[in-house]
Amino acid sequence: MRKPFVAGNWKMNTDSHSSVSLARDVAAGMSEIAGHKIDVAVIPPFVYLQSVARTLSASSIAVGAQDVYTEQQGAFTGEISGSMLKDIGCTYALCGHSERRHVIGETDELINKKVSAAISGGLLPILCVGELLEQRKTEVTKEVVTRQIRAGLAGLGDEKVSAVTVAYEPVWAIGTGLTATTKQAQEAHRLIRKLLSEMYDEQLADDIRILYGGSVKPDNAAELMGQQDVDGLLVGGASLDADDFVAIVKGAV
Ligand code: PGA
Fold this sequence. Notes:
With 253 residues, the chain is α/β, with parallel strands linked by helices. It contains 12 helices and 8 strands. It is 44% helix and 14% strand. Residues 9, 169, 174-175, 213-216, 234-238 line the site of 2-phosphoglycolic acid.
């Protein structure tokens, strides 16, 4: 059985004070679901990772990074490596979030290197995939997501792939208030799992968690989680409000 996983991507939000108080409030809220089998993570901006990790050190909440570089150390001004992130207490790293693909311009090839480097650095990568509105309208969602998964996981053997979580986030649903219907989410997740079973073995495909992301809110979390292949949620905007995020986690247990 796949253990549910809810992660809150804070994006480029919070400051040195509010990041710590948000983390503290989320941790306090988690006491209500103590004993439930669920993984929870928060994903703050790089500069607040260490103080948030310290704040959460006595809790079961993990910390993740929003990005990771392709190398572990060296002359790469401005970049942050997987081993550095591991060193300060990070467990996860997002790779290929839609804002990095479509705003920053990251390619599938670069994202693949980041997934691999995250694993080498001791992190668990969350590979984000998802189609643009135009691509959904022109019915190429399957092709787009298939390409992103195949390219994103290229060269990774069974052992490495078992460290990966996939996040399906239709770009048109991110930060827009539009959520994929449960049917659309389940269809995409099923497609991804089927693809994984073609690329790897059935058991591995069955074990990999696939999160849904895109305008997840307290009132749609439980319904999304009710879908067979939706194993967790990647939450953006609503993760900046401790009450909303805790309510989403509760909806996922
Ligand atoms: P959203 O963002 O929940 O604000 O739509 C999701 C994400 O980008 O991970």
